[in-house]
Amino acid sequence: MTATAVREHTDRGPLSTEELAARIARDIPPGSYVNLGIGQPTRIAEHLPPDAGIVLHTENGMLGMGPAAVGDRVDPDLTNAGKVPVTELPGAAYFHHADSFAMMRGGHLDVCVLGAFQVSGRGDLANWHTGEPDAIPAVGGAMDLAVGAERVLVMMKLFTRDGAAKLVEECGYPLTGAACVHTVYTDHGVFETGPDGAVRVLETYGLTLAELRERLPVRLLG
Amino acid sequence: MTATVVAADADEALAGVADGSTVLVGGFGYAGMPFELIAALIRQGAGGLTVVSNNAGNGDVGLAALLKAGRVRKVVCSFPRQSDSYVFDALYRAGKVELEVVPQGTLAERIRAGGAGIGGFFSPVGAGTPLAAGKETRIIDGREHVLEAPIRGDLALVSAHRADTAGNLVYRRTARNFGPVMATAATTVVAQVTEIVPAGELDPESVVTPGIFVDRLVRAEARRLTVQGAR
Prior knowledge:
A: eleven-stranded mixed sheet, B: eight-stranded parallel sheet, 14 strands, transferase (chain A), NagB/RpiA_transferase-like (chain A), 3-oxoacid_CoA-transf_B (chain A), CoA_trans_fam_I (chain A)
């Protein structure tokens, strides 16, 4: 692998959620079939260039999903995976759930973007269950996406509200998938996971590589 | 299976459901939820049910109403916890309903396998996670796979858009979701549709669920509900 210099953006603070969504959108290749997980990743859709030919998949049975529906365009029979009313674009297709997930497991989906509680340096993903005794576990399509998409991207804040790192050596929460995440996009930097648990830092925001090395419990390659 | 019967109403279509039945319930949130069939199942009175569905009810209607009526012993689903799943949440926390969480695609494929006469399948989904605990695993093409069992129901309740009198179904937009696989995988399959046309009026090329899978049909108005607090 050719080492490239880390782009350290220290003249600014961390990326806002919108900036992060736009940053991820820039890395999605034209013509891709993409699934954006419920929650924050859905915001990436607004930043995809309309002429890039990117087709959005929603696991509840649609390719060619358009923006959220408002007013008269709301149709209870047409929602995204978060159950928000959406619209259809020209060329859209509908299919049942078994076909929808065959698209994932079968390797037909190019990219998915998921939120995360924690990601390990090896790319283990924890995003479905805190493991607390009174928590009600709900996995949805997260495990299927984590295993099935050709490239699995994570969109998350790098630290919890309490300042704990979410990029970790070993996930403390129950896993969604093992060694499945390729790239982790956070407010403080972009990271590539590695099979040996060493993480390549591609760029930083508001913190230097040296500062990240002090705050993250993973081996960082600059 | 004999020819599809058009029932006079949902109560006629839901007659004879036994206590302890396993019921496959279509829908993803409210899209494709067979509201009128569930209302009739509540009136019919069967209890101790195992419900297989993507969610565990939204608001106070549909599957949530069945839960609230105390008829459900166990829920098999992928995503119980939602912005408006308060009926299930309370029952679960009180220990009054059992929960089996299944990854969404595995749920769909287990039902598909049940309907297709497949005795199980190996899937990479869930390998190395708590949901694979206790399941047989096998390395296939260098990747760990988990053995998943088929799911069949005594009863399936699905909501489609239109039907013909031969029982053929077409769906509408993302309300299709689990309907086509569930319709293959139960001893008795009941579909509610907004319109039943004479055989010959649906384009055979556009039929999604062929009538062989459908036992009883009921015409019912669609409830146009959207999930509150969805994001």
